Amino acid sequence: MRTRPSAAVLVAIALPLVLAVTVAVLSLVNRNAADPSAPDPGPPDTRPLAAAPVDAPDASGPACTALLAALPATLPGGDAGLPTRALADPAPAGVRAWAAPSRPVVLRCGLPRPAELTPTSALVVVNGVSWLQLPDDVPDPVQSSWVAVDRGTYIAVTTPATVGSGPLQAVSDAITATLPAAPIAVR
């Protein structure tokens, strides 16, 4: 013989469910709400980007060549996609950029192992790629930088805070499709 649960049990089960649904709906409604005090960044800058040369010993190697060829022309981000942004001459090897409001998204391939990667580093896995977020000492950062640390070469992506995680997800997809995973070398 089955007995029906008491009203208290039903309320104990239903209340957390209703609360979870309410929080989810509110976060969806408010996730794109603009801060009325924030200035409008205006349209993205589409002029050729002058990318400074950095130490990237593997930037011209086959892994970076394959990855750059596999990257999408448009990254997801903000209200619309982020189109590829040309690089000013002389363009360093292993670099790709996309136009975004306020700051570009910039990818650099072939970098040396980041000094910030230690045995206790917190890594985030996005679409099969292990990323190390580089520290930003600014209390309210306007951009974030990530380094893919589980491939045969290191790849850094810097994105403005306003575009969300779409660029990192799309780059992760291209990395997963192009470069095999490798053990993470922390020392």
Report low-confidence residues grouped into runs of 5 or more. Answer: 5-38
Roughly how many Å apart are the termini? 64 Å
Radius of gyration: 21 Å
Helix/strand order: HHEEEEEEEEH
Protein name: DUF3515 domain-containing protein
Pfam family, one: DUF3515
InterPro entries: DUF3515
Task: Describe the 3D structure.
It is a single chain. The chain is of the alpha+beta class. The chain has a domain of 117 residues. It contains 3 helices and 8 strands, in the order H-H-E-E-E-E-E-E-E-E-H. The protein has an 8-stranded antiparallel β-sheet with strand order 1-2-3-4-8-7-6-5. It starts with 6 loop residues before the first helix and ends in a 9-residue tail after the last helix. InterPro entries: DUF3515. It comes from Pseudonocardia sulfidoxydans NBRC 16205. This is DUF3515 domain-containing protein.
Give short descriptive properties of this protein.
187 residues; alpha+beta; eight-stranded antiparallel β-sheet; 8 strands; 21% strand; globular
